[in-house]
Amino acid sequence: MRPKDRWDQARLIRESAPAWAIAMASVEEIDQLNIHQASLLAMKRAVELLGTLPDFALVDGKYYPKIKVPGEALIKGDSLIAEISAASILAKTARDALMIKLESSYPGYGLAQHKGYPTKLHLAGLLRIGVSPCHRRSYRPVARMMEQPVMAMLGSIG
Fold first, then answer.
1. Cβ distance 125 to 114 under 8 Å?
2. Which of 1, 25, 60, 118 could cross-link 29 (Cys pair, CB 3.0–4.6 Å)?
3. Phi then psi for 70, rounded to 5 degrees?
4. Could you read off the pLDDT of 3-15 as tens digits, one per residue?
5. How many CA atoms lie within 13 A of 152 on its CB side?
6. Whole-prediction pTM value?
7. 19, 52 in Cβ contact below 8 A?
8. What angle do CA 51, 69, 41 make, to 5 degrees?
9. What is the chain's mean pLDDT, rounded?
């Protein structure tokens, strides 16, 4: 789906869905838990933000978050179930909006363009500018960059 179509769909979903919520995990939580567990935590938070809990929940993926609602995880659920697809659209547009906002605080990484995906543009920004507070320290290229100054210092000692 084209980004413009996704934004249009997100607007329609927010206007017509009986309930919806967006939740996130922080950079620190992602680094502490790992991206998979942080995603499950964000799903749990989103369900808890709903005004009324659903009787049953369906989520995209292999694992079901630890929530107080019976439900099921479906691999490729976003291509099988309209409600999961709608949740995915809301999540992606929320992430895109965050990346666009972060671009103004951390220019030069191309966050508004690549939306945080590890593109050549993003990696070039990391190499050129260095690591920002919005970067996950557990992301391999960032972790390597953060280790390099220590390795360079150790090399100069010997």
1. no
2. 25
3. -65, 150
4. 889 999 999 999 9
5. 6
6. 0.83
7. yes
8. 80
9. 89
